[in-house]
Amino acid sequence: MIVRSVAELIGTEREVKTPNWVSRRLLLKRDGMGFSLHETTVFAGTETYIWYRHHLEAVFCIEGEGEVEVLPEGIVYRITPGTVYALDRHDKHWLRAKTDMRLVCVFNPPLTGGEVHDEEGVYPLVQETAAASG
Question: Could you list the residue ranges forming a coiled coil in this record (predicted)?
Answer without folding.
Answer: none
